[in-house]
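INTERNAL AUDIT FORM
Audit reference: QA-55
Scope: verify that the stored structure record matches its stored sequence.
Auditor: D.O.
Record contents follow.
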Amino acid sequence: MARAAKKIDADALVGEIALMRSSIWQNGKRKVAAIITDATTDAALLPEKAIALVSVTAFPAGAPSRLMLDVPLYDGPQDGEALPAAWLKR
């Protein structure tokens, strides 16, 4: 089944601020600020509903920053099933 591709420029995402959740921070219940350091929009690599696959540097409060690779970037916050997950801060 073909998905409708949302066109987004991967280079335009680099340096953007995103919010993300991961199972390493309170089982995905905590949102953490992150900066996008790399992105790809290759449809063959994207999970369902994702608009890009990004690498981020996350900055959790009270903990050291963490580099995370291949995090799906969604149009908005996702339910707890999609972890890790990131979305642009708007």
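Auditor finding: record pair retrieved intact. Helices lie at 10-13.
Action required: none
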